[in-house]
Write a structure and sequence with these properties.
The chain has eleven helices and eleven strands. With 341 residues, it is α/β, with parallel strands linked by helices. It is globular. Zinc ion binds next to helix 4.
């Protein structure tokens, strides 16, 4: 049996897992940093990287303990080295390299976005390839053609903000807590999604698989506070029904854009499977809407349970595929913070 320790420190979760070539998860730990960033309304990169430094070793120890294995039992160490926050990525990479050097283990590089798609394979226990991949997270909103776990081609994505980032910023405008996605979902339950007529940017542009959420964010601001500069703390005075209605209207606009472009990617490429990953895929109304679209259009939908949608190291099991293909790295492996296109 092959056992790989996977590390994930791309943003603000410090996570590790031990996975096997049978795609079993022997142990997994996620240490979230939400409590450190909540008062800033978003992730502060420097705080994130410092917290990773403090947490990475305890997280690895706990994971190995849960898995009942020692470092000597491992066959490789894998680490997400792209894309993400530079300082955060470096902590995971240095930890992985050090363990590889000391224990003479091969090093495997993980693309965090590909890992989000691979979460569908782990969760379903089925082969999900070839598929169209949709990543909707705090940092990315992208579509891919995924021929195999080792062959991803970018098809398009957001030209400005990520969907999750828009959730977080709109939540902050509405006086809701970080992370904004779950807070908006909760507030929206009491709201009317048709109350505010918000734009669906690029929805009718069938020529390209592009998304855009920056203008939608601005539309929410204008609707709430007019075109002037909002006074400090103005969001604190919003009526709770206004908050609920805006949360519902905004959430619906994002869902419409994502569902529409994912369905278009499936049609344009003649694929029959859609795999969705990333934190926004945890959104219940989005999950319902994309399932409905799958039923209507007749494609198969794979969407992991909530804990495998948000950042985790279990999805790093994509490293098993690289292990079999003998795609190992040397110790001069670097981070790639930006998207690799
Ligand atoms: O994938 P993820 O955990 O981290 C990144 O790689 O970015 O995604 C985090 C993002 C945040 O923007 C958060 O607000 C959003 O996912 N999110 C949600 C929900 N849960 C998390 N967005 C909408 N609805 C949710 N239930
Ligand atoms: Zn992520």
């Amino acid at each position: 049996m092959i056992r790989i320790l996977t590390l994930e420190t791309t943003c603000d979760e410090t996570a590790a897992a031990v996975v096997t070539d049978r795609l079993e998860v022997l142990g997994a730990v996620v240490a979230s940093q939400d409590e450190l960033h909540v008062r800033f309304g978003g992730v502060v990169p420097e705080i994130a990287s410092r917290a990773h430094v403090e947490r990475i070793l305890p997280v690895i120890h706990q994971t190995l303990e849960k898995a009942g294995v020692s470092l000597q039992d491992l066959d490789a160490i894998a680490v997400a080295n792209r894309p993400g926050l530079a300082g955060s990525l470096l902590v995971g990479l240095m930890a992985a390299k050090t363990l590889c050097l000391v224990h003479d283990l091969p090093l495997i590089a993980i693309d965090h976005l590909q890992a989000h798609i691979y979460a569908c394979q782990i969760a379903s226990g089925k082969n999900v390839f070839p598929c169209i991949g949709l990543i909707v997270s705090g940092g990315h909103s992208n579509l891919y053609r995924c021929e195999s776990p080792l062959d991803f081609t970018p098809l398009g994505g957001t030209i400005d903000d990520a969907a999750g980032e828009a959730f977080d910023k709109v939540a902050s405008m509405l006086g809701l807590a970080y992370p904004g996605g779950p807070a908006i979902q909760k507030a929206a339950k009491q709201g009317d999604p048709k109350k505010y007529k918000l734009p669906r940017p690029l929805l009718n542009d069938r020529s390209r698989l592009a998304l855009s959420f920056s203008g939608l964010k601005t539309a929410v601001r204008y609707e709430l506070f007019g075109t002037g500069r909002p006074a400090m703390g103005e969001e604190a005075n919003l009526d709770s029904q206004v908050v609920a209605d805006m949360a519902a209207s905004f959430q619906q606009a994002v869902i419409d854009c994502l569902v529409n472009k994912a369905a278009l990617a499936i049609r344009q490429n003649g694929y029959h499977r859609l795999c969705v990953g990333g934190g926004v895929a945890a959104n219940t109304p989005f999950r319902k809407a994309i399932q409905q679209q799958a039923n209507t259009d007749g494609f198969e939908l794979f969407i992991p349970p909530l804990a495998l949608c948000t950042d985790n190291a279990v999805m790093g099991a994509i490293a098993i595929e690289r292990y079999h293909a003998e795609l190992f790295e040397t110790l001069d492996l670097d981070i790639t913070p930006g998207l690799v296109r």
